[in-house]
UniProtKB/TrEMBL annotation:
Domain of life: Bacteria
GO molecular function, one term: 3-oxoacyl-[acyl-carrier-protein] synthase activity
InterPro entries assigned to the protein according to its UniProt record, in alphabetical order: ACP_syn_III_C (IPR013747), ACP_syn_III_N (IPR013751), Thiolase-like (IPR016039)
SUPFAM superfamilies registered for this protein in UniProt: Thiolase-like
Listed GO biological process terms: fatty acid biosynthetic process; secondary metabolite biosynthetic process
Beta-ketoacyl-[acyl-carrier-protein] synthase III N-terminal domain boundaries: 119-192
Name of this protein: 3-oxoacyl-ACP synthase
Ranges where the Beta-ketoacyl-[acyl-carrier-protein] synthase III C-terminal domain occurs: 251-339
Sorted UniProt keywords: Acyltransferase, Transferase
Length: 342
């Protein structure tokens, strides 16, 4: 599990992001709340706001919007050198295949490596960093684009039978993009990825009456939670994210309290507080977008980092730790980057 990238030649050169215009207040969900739903937990303390994608908005639309600021800064010619495209879509809309091909076509690129990364969940951005980094190091590829799209909030969690559940108010929609290149300008110092496959089946989708997700039926699909499952996920997530981050710190020779910035996925306030406490970091070193954007799943890390950079919170030379976990705890990852500035 302890795998050092062992190269200073791969950099996270830039990030950019997109949030839909539709800003939805928590009151929307309050009016539909089901008083008979007994699930109550820190897992589901709703943020004040989140964004929902527009009707008909596709993953390719969101990806195109997310990369637009990067193209404006760097020029469209950067697409000419993209030999690796890794796409994670929370809810793929192209059945079986995924949305990577559609996104590549929209960007006008034909990468040698086009990967739809269906696992990795909320930590998929880091998972993709590792895959892209290894491909860059071991091939003639010139650069890689990582695209993470969260598109389930305004589609799954606003369904008539789902919007009254406590879980419905947590997610928001958005997309993030990362550019990896061969350089020492903003080096990825180390990446830790940990698969815990024994927990892979614990994040389930359910309907009433029961059916498989692809079968027609009256019940609308949603994530199945019980009090017992929530307690286990909270305990697991509190443990595995700091463990991954500490492993990276140990290999690059720094204490966690020496980090300049911690950027994590954004499941809820309880996780955010517990993670920074475990790494002995003050709140000002742990930017988050939860109150405005909710849980952005895999898009949370690039969106939050992009906003921190835009706000001037990440000067050149900052030591940044990205960290997160996926689903019910079947994957955790952390990556350290010496940010080179924008």
């Amino acid at each position: 599990m302890d795998e050092l990238m062992n190269t200073g030649t791969v950099s996270l050169a830039d990030v950019s992001s997109y949030l839909p215009k539709n800003r939805v207040a928590a009151d929307y969900f309050v009016r539909y709340a089901d008083p008979d739903d007994a699930i109550s937990s820190a897992m589901f303390k709703a943020p004040p706001f989140r964004r929902h994608l527009a009707p008909g908005e596709t993953p390719a639309d969101m990806a195109e919007q997310a990369i637009a600021p990067m193209l404006e800064r760097r020029g469209h010619q950067l697409l000419d050198e993209v030999d690796i495209l890794i796409v994670h879509t929370q809810m793929p809309e192209t059945f079986i295949v995924g949305n990577g091909g559609e996104i590549a076509a929209r960007l006008g690129i034909t990468p040698e490596w086009l990967i739809d990364l269906h696992n990795g969940g909320c930590a998929a951005f880091i998972h993709a960093m590792k895959l892209a980094g290894q491909l860059l190091v071991n091939s003639d590829a010139r650069s890689a684009l990582i695209v993470t799209v969260q598109n389930a909030a305004g589609q799954v969690f606003t369904q008539e039978q789902v919007r009254g559940k406590p879980q419905a108010a947590i997610p928001g929609d958005g997309a993030g993009v990362g550019l990896l290149v061969k350089s020492d300008d903003s080096p990825i110092l180390d990446i830790e990825t940990r698969h815990l496959p024994e927990f892979a089946g614990q994040m389930t989708v359910v309907a009433d009456p029961p059916r498989k997700y692809w079968e027609a039926g009256e019940g609308q699909i949603h994530v199945g939670f019980t009090e017992s499952k929530i307690a286990k996920v909270l305990a697991r997530g509190n443990r595995i994210v700091p463990e991954a981050a500490h492993a990276v710190c140990g290999r690059i020779g720094v204490r966690s309290d020496e980090l300049d910035l911690l950027v994590t996925n954004q499941p809820n306030r309880a996780f955010l507080r517990n993670w920074r406490d475990a790494l002995q970091l003050p709140v000002e070193k742990h930017p988050d977008t939860f109150d405005e954007c909710g849980n952005l799943f895999a898009a949370g890390i690039p969106v939050t980092f992009d906003q921190a950079v835009q706000a001037g919170r990440v000067p050149a030379g900052s030591l940044v730790m990205f960290a997160g976990f996926a689903h019910a705890g079947d994957f955790a990852a952390a990556a350290a980057v010496r940010w080179g500035g924008r």
